[in-house]
From TrEMBL:
It comes from the Eukaryota. Keywords: Kelch repeat, Repeat. InterPro entries: Gal_Oxase/kelch_b-propeller, Kelch-typ_b-propeller. Pfam families: Kelch_KLHDC2_KLHL20_DRC7. This is Uncharacterized protein. It comes from Steccherinum ochraceum.
Length: 730
């Protein structure tokens, strides 16, 4: 017989008054797979368990049993709608298991990141991956219960905070030996309780995101529920779990686009901590001074001028090596060509998937394409130049590791260039090699990760991000953290190239990390608030004026979509949704994601580029591509690339909290709800429906569209008065 003592002074009284002992016995028996008689007395709670209750060689976990008892007390408070009391007890249950990041305090994140190798100042703190499955199950349940308490009390942001904590506890699950796995691998216990808690987390998060209009994140959670119940371990009856997932609802959700043209004109800010209003406005550029549509190009802004280099119109060409520029303060002047790139294609490969970043102090835009010869564009002289660099040899990487590297991330901090990931001729999957070039010594060195070649194979590790291409990255305002998130492990290309880890579909990462520049180590962070769903090839920019990172669009290799008009199923999705991330002023606290609600938006696309003008704080979008079947296009068989320019306005404050920094003043949301272009469609001015409607042929110049003659007749007078439109004389 095992005796568990009461830790809290009021536990005994609460136990006798609130706890149904039979319910606890049933719960414990289910958890341990055998009858567990429970008796309460003045000394504590006696559980009739002898030997090893888990059937393993590990000692019995008495702290977890005690925490289970406290959680049962909290459950009674929860059923009685006493949410504050329930939350206190649930926090007591979490404390019971110890190992908290902040001793004696239940604050999120609860534990140290799995990426930590050292215990830090709190030697008793544990990492997320130090917990076994059974502790995770109980902790996930406590987090779900706390989220329910906040949700019932109307506090969405705190509810999401605890659901995110439950999600993070699940993501940290690996093998019983607690070894690291690649993100596309998983190992779950044959425990129905474990699955029930995970399904509960996903159901609540999905419902909340859908209610907030974040359809991509809402669908993701529904899709994850579907995948979970379709792959239960042997020995479990998955049919009861499968009945918990509404497949009809999920199929309907796959018909939504993100954002959806039918829903976007009706969206309003319901929670200012999780949403903001925005407006996408197309910038008109004269056709005579335009640029060819493209994807896979480089971009940067200098002195309020946007520079575009290289890229391609489609995979089979034409491929570009030109450098063009447009004045963002005077876009009507159009694009103009600059000094041509001197590199030879036979030596460099196609100028696609490279990166250019500005070093303001040197007044140069450095171009990296995987070669030791580093090229740059002199922003004053407007001429190309280059410098020779060298590689610092180390044991298993004696020579320069890259061959035609593409789709990597690149950032400049002070006098150092950081490069992460990307794919190359020896690793189409994407690697996770992280290197740095000191621009003073012109020497490269390895910081973490592997090339993915046979001589330097990929290895799953807790301490660094996994292998990928097309990640997003940026440096914070203090220049102490380099953030990295999302991207794709291109398992399809790996399969075609006969590489390790090949599969019939890619893997989209949903993680976020930051590199501590001073300590030279990776830290696994968490998404907080109302974030985008996992994706690759997204547009991103850090805006120093706003102290915010903005994310737009992208592509998911695994989240499905259905074209309602053709009933065609796609195993992937393209996006046109917009989000902002603002770091917390306290470096020990999490930053917050917000969903930008817009009436109109650019077409769903990937590989577009977002840029911020550091002088004005304005945010612009250029280029990209979309699949011509996903967004039906009769003119383009496979893919369509874009050469359009958009300006994003947002109802936000600047870094100091001064309002109006997002140029949102003067935006007419009512007008946009009826006339703004919604992706590939136009809105009917009269009824608001979206489709390939005909524009007005009057003197307004096509400011309004109508879906049929009846709507034209009904809406003509209002359109005439609002837009001063007249019939053209024949």
């Amino acid at each position: 017989m095992v005796t568990l003592s009461h830790e809290q002074a009021d536990l005994e009284d609460a136990f006798h008054k609130k706890l149904n002992v039979e319910e606890l016995a049933t719960s414990m028996s289910a958890a341990y797979g055998r009858p567990v008689p429970i008796v309460s007395n003045a000394r504590g709670i006696n559980m009739g368990i002898t030997g090893d209750p888990l059937g393993t060689e590990e000692p019995a976990d008495y702290e977890r049993w005690q925490a289970s008892v406290i959680r049962e007390i909290a459950s009674n408070f929860l059923r009685g709608q006493k949410y504050d009391e329930a939350r206190v007890k649930l926090q007591d249950a979490i404390k019971q298991m110890g190992g908290l990041r902040c001793p004696g305090e239940v604050v999120v994140p609860l534990y140290l990141p799995s990426s930590d190798n050292e215990p830090g100042p709190n030697a008793s703190a544990v990492r997320y991956n130090d917990h076994d499955y059974w502790r995770r199950t109980l902790l996930m349940g406590c987090c779900n219960d706390i989220a329910e308490c906040y949700l019932k009390s109307g506090n969405d942001i705190e509810a999401l905070t605890w659901l995110e904590e439950s999600d993070h506890l699940y993501v940290g699950c690996t093998t019983p030996s607690k070894t690291a796995l690649f993100g596309w691998m998983s190992s779950n216990p044959a425990s129905e309780e474990f699955y029930l808690e995970r399904l509960r987390t996903l159901a609540t998060m999905g419902e909340m995101f859908l209610r907030l209009g974040n359809t991509s994140s809402g669908l993701l959670r529904r899709w994850q529920r579907h995948l979970l119940v379709m792959a239960v371990p042997p020995g479990m009856d998955g049919r009861s779990l499968q009945r918990m997932v509404d497949q009809n609802e999920m199929r309907k959700l796959t018909q939504l686009k993100h954002p959806d043209a039918k829903l976007s004109p009706k969206l309003e800010v319901k929670n200012k901590d999780l949403q903001i209003m925005g407006s996408w406005q197309k910038v008109e550029v004269p056709k005579s001074g335009n640029i060819q549509p493209r994807m896979g190009f480089c971009s940067f802004v200098w002195k309020s001028k946007l520079y575009i280099f290289g890229g391609e119109k489609s995979l089979d060409g034409p491929h570009f090596r030109d450098l063009r520029c447009i004045d963002l303060n005077n876009p009507s002047a159009g694009w103009w060509a600059l000094d041509g790139y001197p590199g030879n294609e036979a030596q460099t490969g196609k100028a696609t998937g490279w990166k250019m970043r500005v070093h303001a102090g040197q007044q140069r835009a450095y171009l990296f394409n995987g070669r030791l010869q580093l090229e740059y564009f002199d922003l004053v002289e407007e001429k190309w130049g280059s410098v020779k660099t060298t590689w610092t040899s180390e044991g298993d990487l004696p020579f320069w590791p890259y061959q035609q590297l593409v789709d990597f991330s690149m950032d400049i901090v002070d006098d150092k260039i950081y490069v992460f990931g990307g794919s190359h001729t020896k690793c189409e999957l994407g690697c996770n090699l992280f290197t740095v070039l000191d621009l003073k010594t012109l020497k490269w060195r390895r910081l973490s990760g592997y090339t993915g070649s046979r001589q330097h194979p990929l290895r799953p590790e807790w301490s660094c991000p996994g292998p990928r291409r097309h990640p997003a990255s940026w440096v914070d305002s203090s220049k102490t953290k380099l953030y990295l998130m999302f991207g794709e492990a291109d398992r399809m290309s790996a399969r075609i190239n006969n590489e390790a880890y090949g599969a019939q579909s890619g893997y989209g990462y949903g993680d976020i990390w930051y590199w501590d520049i001073a300590e030279e180590r990776w830290v696994r962070d968490k998404h907080h608030g109302n974030p985008p769903c996992p994706r690759s090839e997204m547009s991103y920019t850090y805006n120093p004026k706003l102290n915010k990172t903005i994310i737009f669009g992208g592509y998911s290799p695994t989240i499905p979509a259905t074209a309602e008009e053709t009933n065609q199923y796609f195993s992937y999705s393209y996006y046109a949704d917009t989000y902002t991330f603002k770091p917390n002023a306290d470096p020990n606290q999490q930053g917050i994601w917000k969903h930008v609600l817009v009436r109109g938006f650019p077409t769903y696309r990937a590989q577009a580029h977002l840029v911020s003008d550091p002088d004005t704080g304005k945010v612009f979008l250029f280029g990209g591509y979309t699949n011509s079947q996903f967004v039906l296009d009769k003119k383009h068989v496979i893919a369509r690339s874009f050469g359009d320019l958009w300006w994003l306005k947002m109802d936000v404050s600047d870094a100091e909290g001064n309002p109006g920094a997002g140029f949102f003043e003067g935006v007419d949301l009512e007008e946009e709800a009826r006339t703004a272009k919604a992706g590939p469609w136009q809105r009917c001015f009269n009824c608001g429906s979206a489709g390939t409607w005909k524009k007005c042929g009057g003197t307004c110049g096509g400011k309004a569209f109508f879906c049929d003659p009846q709507c034209l007749k009904e809406g003509w007078k209002e359109h005439k008065d609002r837009h001063r439109c007249m019939n053209r004389k024949k």
